[in-house]
Amino acid sequence: MTKTRLPSLNAVRTFAVAGRHLNLTSAAAELGVTQGAVSRLVQALEADLGVELFRRSGRSVVLTAEGARYHREVAAALARIEAASRDLRENAAGAGLVINAIPTLAMRWLIPRLGGFQALHPEIPVDVRAGDGAVSFADEPADLVIRFGAPPFAGAACARLMEEEMSVVCSPAFLRRHGDLRAPAALLRHRLLQHSTRPWAWTDYLARHRLELPADSPLPSFEHFFMLSEAAASGLGVALLPTFLIREELASGRLVEPLADRLRPEQAYYLLWRPGSERRRPVRVFKTWLLKQAAQDAETT
Hints:
By secondary structure, this protein is of the alpha/beta class. It is about 40% helix and about 15% strand. The strands form 3 sheets. A 5-stranded mixed β-sheet has the order 4-3-5-11-6. A 4-stranded mixed β-sheet has the order 7-10-8-9. A hairpin with a 2-residue loop joins strand 1 (about 55) and strand 2 (about 60-65). About 25% of the residues are buried. One of its GO terms (molecular function) is sequence-specific DNA binding.
């Protein structure tokens, strides 16, 4: 059996970097070696292959026809080795995930379900962070992001996680004091509480009933849904809240729905990830698990 003879991997990598820069000094700077070391490794590779790879002009070089062909092949091969090595490291036991989610959704929906994921995949630690702004994976350290909106999301792949319906809610004491909340028109006589990122919600709800907020209506605003929920439960006014985030309050009676109809926005909750990152096993299995959780939740409501 003939023994396969491979050139030095260090020499091949040095040649690939030098061929990309076409300058031995720049290649040396990237590799962290001297320009002389780069030159010696390339010469050793040429001697091993029996082919001239570069034509030299001072510190600059030009690929020969054979060198250009060889460079294309080895650069692609080294890129595959790098990608395979990166995937192996990232998929190793202990490689974790960072999930960035809307704060109240993380508190009320995601975190209560994480025990199920950890039981299935104890080898994947999950770090949950809060956020609700625009996503740029160039700056965002998260592996997966949950946001409310509509595609496309710039620079991100996405999957629809769940739709939203919003309930008109207030405290039982508020309803007892203001027993006239039997029709949407009655809302205009009371303080309406809003979420700071959903200033359109009340406008949309009232428009469905051919009603309009007076232009001078001051609406108290709250940054997070858990704040808005607490404000409504404390009797500060009437709020529009995502129903799935206030199930406990509705079940316990802290919040009540004086009106039966609910607002269903055109936007929805989406799971976002950096294109290509689903090749990582932790990203892939968490994404599959989370979408299944959302589908099961939709079936039971």
